[in-house]
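Render this sequence as a predicted structure.
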Amino acid sequence: MIVKLAGKLEFVGEDCVHVTSGDFTRELLVPAADVPFLQTKVGQTVTFFTLEYIEGNPSFGGMAPKMLGFLRSEDKEFFDLFTTVKGIGTRKGLRAFAIPTNQIASAIALKDVRKLSSLPGIGKRMAETIVAELHGRVERFAVGAAEGAAAVETLPDYQQGAIAALVTLGERRGDAETWVRRVCEVDPTLKDPQKIVPAVFRLKSGGGRS
């Protein structure tokens, strides 16, 4: 199973993108909330956190593999949880992600049925079901979460590179974003991911600037 994919963004549609990695170009279904940001990144290398599933009915044939792509590992994790709700399949869940995931999680945490009902494909009854099944389980996605793709867009490439390196080293992406921002605020002259990463570990250990 492919869990992360980095490649050149070739095309952005209403609900999907085409990404070339090596000799292969893959189609990824993406949340609507990410599309405006992705449209600004065509031709650039983008990393997606991916989920694979099989779409179709085995009784009638036509089974086809599909891949979903998320810009943040937390979005992928929240999607996994969101689609455990009875009546929300993969496609319906993806359509519902028309706003950043932290806003959806906040609505669940606040039992805001009206806001949840406004999501594509989610009526009042389904919104009530979502609250009933997920309330008390989503706070970590709502509190302190970045504002989805818009937040990613504001980070310079060197900061995004440092964040990617920290994630590879085992940091949660949300934590990595926070530490990188702090380090660059402490020392605005840092523009190299290879210097930012050790500076993060120094700051975490209480060592501050070297």
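Summary. The longest strand covers residues 45-57. Strands lie at 4-12, 16-21, 24-29, 45-57, 61-70.
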